[in-house]
Design goal:
The protein is an alpha/beta fold. It has 2 domains: about 220 residues, Rossmann fold (3-Layer(aba) Sandwich); about 160 residues, Glycogen Phosphorylase B (Rossmann fold, 3-Layer(aba) Sandwich). It has 14 helices and 13 strands. Helix 7 packs across helix 12. The chain is globular.
Length: about 400
């Protein structure tokens, strides 16, 4: 079976980039599928892949000059962008037709509309890595002119319509997000997995809380700082360690400094994050929204009780409230602080939650999840074959 993935770049330290890389590796090595990935914005000389990619996976970097649009101001920039997208569409079609795949797969947050309009015989899948309600929504909250804001509203509406009209399948990570894609031809729910090697589990003894993720507005680190101000008053002996990088890094570091608390630190991403989970006793997630949250799954696999906001979507699917952690009303700082303090005060509860966390994580084993993908691919290729024979 020949499958082609599309993504803007594999050079970013993101959850989507990591899980897509791992899925491609698995399909190529375990099922012996012919796997290719086409990137359009990645320049390999200066932007190497962040995550391991098997030699069995063919990578094609188009090195498309999308930056040219930023030489112009609005509204001309929109016209230039439209011309560039048309040109990119032609390059993608040429690349796809040279491979002649059975299935092509795009991601919802980046040029999924272009992928859906590629003229080819392959079945089209779009993976919804961030909730539909947030797909292309960031444009609406940025500081644009009135004309540009109206354009982006119309663009987003059309973008989602093209996916729902043209994609053979939209794959969601959660049941709630799947419901929001109800206008699509077909919707399947296939969650992510974590294949991170684990050599040591948490023993629940270190007085340390861990948070992991890109330092961006979405991740809600401003909310975490407010929570930690409350927690530190009762538990100054506990340490909060944040692992991440991103566009708000300087702003969050400044906010941490202004608290004058000595028990909160920010660290860059590390390849040894498994070790950091194992050296912690609680994991927290204060995101405003998630597509799934690999961080929570990784924490559960290490036996960490989790405290998370009930943001859309993912946390309530992963964390069974009062069994392997606490799912807090979204934005309720006081309740989050209270439950976090409760876990700190009760090591026996942490130990009970830890056992349940490991058990919960088993349902997201890589072999289980990848078998779901295999069954989906087989159903699509069988359907395509039947259509061709009927024709």
């Amino acid at each position: 079976m020949r499958i082609v993935y599309f993504i803007d770049s594999l050079a970013s330290k993101g959850g989507a980039e990591r899980i897509i890389s791992e899925k491609m590796n698995y399909l190529a090595t375990h099922y012996d599928y012919d796997i290719s990935v086409i990137t359009w914005y990645q320049y390999p000389e200066t932007m190497p892949n962040c995550y391991y990619l098997s030699d069995k996976v063919r990578q094609i970097n188009l090195c498309f000059p999308s930056h040219l649009q930023y030489k112009y101001s609005y509204p001309k920039r929109l016209w230039i962008r439209r011309k560039l997208v048309h040109r990119l569409n032609q390059e993608l079609e040429n690349a796809v037709n040279s491979i002649n795949p059975d299935i092509i797969i795009g991601v919802g947050y980046t040029l999924a509309d272009v992928v859906c309009r590629i003229k080819c015989k392959a079945a089209k899948i779009i993976e919804s890595h961030e909730a539909r309600i947030y797909t292309k929504a960031s444009y609406l909250y940025e500081n644009h002119s009135f004309f540009a804001t109206i354009y982006y509203r119309l663009y987003r509406k059309k973008y989602l319509h093209i996916i729902e009209k043209n994609a053979d399948v939209v794959v969601s990570l959660t049941k709630d997000d799947a419901f929001n894609w109800k206008k699509a031809k077909r919707v399947e729910i296939i969650p992510n997995f974590s294949s991170m090697p684990i050599s040591k589990l948490s023993n629940g003894e270190p007085k340390r809380v861990i948070a992991v993720g890109r330092i961006a507005w979405q991740k809600g680190y401003d909310r975490l700082i407010e929570i930690w101000k409350n927690v530190s008053k009762k538990h100054p002996e506990w340490q909060l360690d944040i692992f991440g990088e991103g566009e708000l890094e300087m702003e969050i570091k400044k906010a941490v400094k202004e608290t004058k608390l000595c028990n909160i630190s920010i660290h860059p991403f590390t390849k040894n994050i498994s070790q950091e989970y194992a050296m912690s006793s609680i994991c927290v997630l204060t995101s405003r929204f998630e597509g799934f949250s690999l961080v929570l799954l990784e924490a559960l696999r290490h036996g960490l009780p989790c405290v998370t906001f009930d943001c859309p979507y993912g946390p309530q699917d992963l964390v069974d409230n009062e069994k392997c952690g606490y799912v807090i009303e979204d934005g309720n700082i006081d309740q989050f602080s209270e439950k976090l303090c409760f876990l700190m005060d009760h090591p026996e509860i942490r130990a009970h939650f830890s056992i349940a966390a490991i058990d919960k994580a088993q349902s997201y084993h890589v072999d289980t999840i990848m078998n779901q993908w295999k069954l989906l691919f087989e159903s699509l290729t069988k359907s395509n074959k039947t259509d061709i024979e009927a024709f």
